[in-house]
Specification:
4-stranded antiparallel beta sheet, elongated, 3-stranded mixed beta sheet
């Protein structure tokens, strides 16, 4: 199956928009595949429901893209899911740390992050508005 293979490889994190038809048989199975794409960080998913037709594509997932902090060393930290009330802004309250394999959050940013296009998603939270260093390995 293509969707589980994408999720397992980590390549789905590089996909901004995905168009696909679900032929998994059961409606529940298609929903599980949609959720797998959502959790892996795909930006937007359009899926053609049964019956098709040129205008039948419907958006099943959409999230803002570009929430990525980078630095000159090649480090890249991307917000996959914000889990707190404070907006996480790249290079303002989350970003690359000086130590390789680490990133920081501060000023109330809480979320799940992906570092340097790795498959692993690392949770990290700034508590009491303090800066916290987090490992890209979780």
């Amino acid at each position: 199956e293509i969707v589980p293979a994408l999720a397992a490889s980590g390549a789905d994190a590089l996909i901004d928009v995905l168009l696909w038809e679900c032929h998994a048989g059961l409606r529940t199975r298609c929903w599980k595949l949609d959720r797998m794409l959502d959790e892996s960080g795909v930006g937007a998913v359009y899926r053609e429901p049964k019956g098709g037709g040129d205008d039948a594509w419907r958006k099943v997932l959409s999230r803002p893209r570009g929430l990525r902090a980078t630095d000159s060393s090649g480090c890249s930290v991307r917000l996959i899911e914000q889990t707190g009330d404070t907006a996480c802004t790249p290079n303002v309250n989350f970003g690359c740390a000086a130590m390789p394999g680490q990133f920081y959050v501060k000023r109330g940013c809480r979320g799940k992050f992906r570092c340097n296009s790795t498959v692993h998603i690392a949770p990290c939270a700034s508590l009491a508005n303090k800066r916290k260093l987090c490992s890209c390995d979780g």
